[in-house]
Design a protein that fits this description.
With 330 residues, the protein is of the alpha/beta class. Helices cover 46% and strands 15% of the residues. The strands form 2 sheets. A 6-stranded mixed sheet has the order 1-2-10-7-8-9, with helices on both faces. Strands 5-4-3-6 form a 4-stranded parallel sheet, sandwiched between helices. α4 packs parallel to α5 (112-120). The radius of gyration is 19 Å and the shape is globular.
Length: 330
Amino acid sequence: MSDLVSPPDIERAAERIAGVALRTPLVPFPRDPAPAGGGAEEPSLFVKAESLQPIGAFKIRGAYSAIASLEPRERERGVVTHSSGNHAQAVAYAARALGIRAVLVMPHTAPGVKVDACIALGAEVVHVEPTSQARVETARKLQAAHGFTMIPPYDDARVIAGQGTAGLEIVQDRPDVDVVLVPVSGGGLLAGIATAVKELRPEAKVIGVEPELAADARESMAAGRPVAWTAEETARTVADALRVQQVGDLPFAHMRAYVDGIVTVTEDEIRRTMRRLAREARLIAEPAGAVATAAYLHHRAELPEGRTYVSILSGGNVDPALLLEVLERG
């Protein structure tokens, strides 16, 4: 347990990102009407809109926290990372803000809207095959060749602490929170939020949510060790930000310590939730950003009981064509 991120680590990360990352609001999701005849009142659901961050996703928290903590010599050499999009954009944003060179290793299947945003921020993009192995190996080769500092997307204590600031805000803003629903891919966001929530409000439950078609985290929790899925398997989900093939070792240690369960959602549920978030909560969610709310809307019976739920809308960087298709089909 001593190797895990602590509440003081998260508090220090909150100080580093203050004024850079937005303290995002908890947006009330409209309740369904109470049943005729006086049935039980719906629980309250609040959506933490990380889509409102400067780069449109929560990743700015961990990336800026990690890069801001670098020593001067490390900053001079620049940074490198590997990402399908949102973390790459966060590293590019943080590096530009701090005057640091950034090189981003991204799969050639990454959504154009995310790649274009990275280039606009002044980062250098290196395209590779859409496998975790290709991304990691290429980033490590660049690190060795140029002396860059690696800023991992999730398997890093500094990054986990940064992502945990979202959990810190949840408990501060809703001390009565009963259940927190968090998207899970590499596990950094889930690890950080679970640590903050469970340390500050031990009675609250934290549930990870992922697509059925990329359910390696659920399998890993059942097996008691990280289990890898193939790139071909995880590529089936529309949630491109959740296609990581295996949770990181450090995030998994936090998940074992703090997470109460994993729920999966279908592709249709993801799309339906994107529509409902746009139409009812006036929030734009990319597919990965919709999964936590989808668990509440479509799998309530699988969730712990509570009166106050919070779902993390992790990002809103959706390809315009996909968003139009999702909205039109509704």
